[in-house]
Design goal:
With about 170 residues, the chain is α+β, with helices and mostly antiparallel strands. The protein has one domain: Gcn5-related N-acetyltransferase (GNAT) (Aminopeptidase). It has helices spanning about 10-25, 30-45, 95-110, 120-130, and strands at about 1-5, 55-60, 60-75, 75-85, 110-120, 135-145, 145-155.
C-alpha cells in the first residue's frame, strides 16, 4: 500500500533501508545513515511547500520503500529518498513510484527536477533514463568514508530532458 506523509517508524525504516543498501553496494557507514534519517525527518516535520510529495510503500506497519519530491521554489524540485526493499526490486513498483512523482511534478508545474545518485546502480539508472533524466554532472570524491562517484541527473519540462553532461 502506498502511503502519503509520516507514519510511525517511516523515518527509521527508510534510513535503515538506505543504510543496508549502500553499506552493501558502496561501503557506506553510520554517517550516511544518520544523514538520511536527519534530512528525511526534517523534510517530514517542516511545513510542506506547495509541490512537496512523499510516498512510502507500507506493509504491516513497516516502510519498505519511499520516494519524495522536495519543492525548492522557482519551478525546481529535488527528487530524494527513492529506495525499495530488496524483496520488492524487479516488481515494477519502482516504476510506479517514479511515474507517480513525475505526474505530480508535471501537475505542480515544475520546470526542472534534479537528483543525485551513485554510479554503479544500473536498475535505478534505467528507471531515471526512461523518465527522461540525463546526467549533467559527475563528481568523484571521498564521501561517507569511501571513494564514491556521484551523478547529478536532471529532467527539464521544455523537452522532457536535456542533452549532454554539463559542468
Amino acid at each position: 500500500m502506498l502511503r502519503a506523509g509520516w507514519f510511525p517508524g517511516v523515518v527509521g525504516d527508510i534510513a535503515a533501508l538506505h543504510a543496508r543498501q549502500y553499506a552493501q553496494s558502496h561501503g557506506f557507514g553510520a554517517v550516511f545513515e544518520a544523514k538520511v534519517a536527519r534530512e528525511l525527518g526534517e523534510f517530514l516535520t517542516r511545513p510542506p511547500a506547495p509541490g512537496d510529495l512523499f510516498r512510502a510503500v507500507e506493509r504491516e506497519g513497516r516502510a519498505l520503500g519511499s520516494i519524495a519530491l522536495e519543492d525548492e521554489g522557482a519551478g525546481v524540485a529535488h527528487l530524494r529518498w527513492f529506495i525499495l526493499d530488496a524483496a520488492l526490486r524487479g516488481s515494477g513498483l519502482g516504476k510506479i513510484l517514479l511515474d507517480a512523482v513525475m505526474a505530480h511534478a508535471q501537475a505542480a508545474g515544475f520546470s526542472r527536477i534534479y537528483l543525485w545518485t551513485l554510479d554503479g546502480l544500473p536498475a535505478a539508472a534505467r528507471l531515471y533514463a526512461a523518465a527522461g533524466f540525463v546526467e549533467t554532472r559527475r563528481l568523484s570524491a571521498t564521501q561517507w568514508g569511501v571513494e564514491t562517484t556521484e551523478l547529478r541527473l536532471e529532467w527539464h519540462r521544455e523537452v522532457g530532458a536535456i542533452s549532454g553532461p554539463g559542468p
